[in-house]
Amino acid sequence: MKVEIWSDVVCPFCYIGKRKFENALKEFAHRDEVEVVWHSFELTPDFQPIPGESIHESLAKKKGVSAEEGRKMNDYMTGVAKEVGLAYDFDRAIPANTFLAHQLIHLGAHHGRQDATKERLMAAYYLEGQNIGDLETLVKLGAELAFDSTETRAALTAGTYAEAVRQDEYHAQQINVRGVPFFVFEDKYAVSGAQPTELFAEVLEKVWDEFKPAKPALTMVADGPACGPEGCD
């Protein structure tokens, strides 16, 4: 079974949704036969961070509210994240453009470590206060995932995976993705948002029952003398 997920690294519900989906997947009997593919989605592609501006101030400006209201929104999100075991630290979070980070996730896919790369970036942003829009920070995070630093720096500098990010976003437009996280199961069923773990579990079971691999038909490669209920040939 294939599950494709569109999300942004700086989308708080995306990390929460990731955990809820993973919790459902852990209990799914056929989890080893599920392929998860992460796709890029930039909530604010043209975002230009202002040095020294806090995430509370950045959110407030985007929403057109006071900085205090921005902090309250983030405090609420911290509580929601805590329910799935994530300790968001918005006081340390650094506003960032995610275009380079998405390219690193594609590099991770190239090395067969896409999910690990996605997880590392989200943890760096939400839990550790690292600047995921900074090239050298991304090179360092890549090194933690055993990526060659020279390769990572060269790929991000040259935009080797920039087109892959744009293709993901174009695909999102084609299937009318309006918000993230957005989950697509077997290119037929979609789930939008950080839904409860129980719902993800139900969808996994439903899709598996509908699309589970059929047992291959036997192909006779030799037919010779044998015995059966009526005797022997």
TrEMBL record:
Gene3D superfamilies recorded: Glutaredoxin
Keywords, alphabetical: Isomerase
Molecular-function annotations in GO: isomerase activity
Pfam families from the UniProt entry: DSBA
Domain of life: Bacteria
InterPro entries: DSBA-like_thioredoxin_dom, Thioredoxin-like_sf
Location of the DSBA-like thioredoxin domain: 3-204
Protein's name according to its UniProt entry: Protein disulfide isomerase FrnE
Phylogenetic classification of the source organism: Bacteria, Pseudomonadati, Bacteroidota, Cytophagia, Cytophagales
